[in-house]
Amino acid sequence: MVGKHWTEDELIYLEYFVFENDSKLKEASCFLGRSVNAIRKKLSQLRKNKDYNVGYMHRLWTEEELNFIKRNYTQMTYEDIAKKLNRGAAAVELIARENGIRKHKKLKDFDTEIRELATSGYCPAEIARELNIKAGSVRSYMIAQNINYRTLSKSESLIRARERSTWKETNSFLFKD
User: Fold this and answer.
1) CB 70 within 8 A of CB 63
2) Confidence (pTM)
3) From the CB of residue 27, how many other CB atoms can be counted at a distance below 10 Å?
């Protein structure tokens, strides 16, 4: 069974329909008087034809979805957000990046605290622990911003490491009198 042929106007409408990306295939099928499957098949054929500029249709992001991402981006993984929104994890990551939503604050946001702690005599590792940031990131930031900081001597470093270590407590059976 051969279906009806597509007119040039219908093809132009499909190309524009995909370009606008503002409605569903069901609406196009009603407008053109064709089935949704017929439209899907024709769009697939048009994508392969270099004369037509037909991309893939993507569901537009709603304001509610963007707000959900903003509220939950730091607590949830991309995959969890994607499942909740019925989207792909890569799409969630991309839309977050495009909207300036970040999982972590920029170190520049902590600049005043870093400078205050450094002038108070804190070393980069202590500043990192205080601000809950990676020590290497803090050290690199301080070097890049020419922030002077105190370096610990080997003995000071060893003493502090021993104070923080739980090894002796967990292996106390080795030190019984």
Assistant:
1) no
2) 0.43
3) 11
Alpha-carbon distances of 25 from 2, 43, 63, 69, rounded to whole Å: 22, 11, 22, 27
The amino acid present at 171, given as its one-letter code, is N
R_g (Cα) of the chain, nearest Å? 29
Task: Tell me the torsion sign for CA atoms 52, 56, 59, 65.
Answer: negative
Q: Please give the Cα distance from 24 to 20 (Å, whole number).
A: 11
| Residue 23 neighbours by CB under 8 Å, 6+ apart | 17
Give residue 117's identity as a one-letter amino acid code: L
Higher-confidence position of 72 and 19: 72
What rounded mean pLDDT belongs to the chain? 81
Give 155's pLDDT tier (boundaries 50, 70, 90).
confident
| CA distances, 85 to each of 69, 80, 91, 96 (Å) | 9, 9, 11, 13
Pinpoint the alpha helices (H) of the chain: 8-20, 25-32, 36-48, 63-72, 78-85, 89-98, 111-119, 124-131, 135-144, 154-164, 167-170
**Angle between the N-to-C axes of helices 89-98 and 63-72, in degrees from 0 to 180, rounded to the nearest 10:** 90
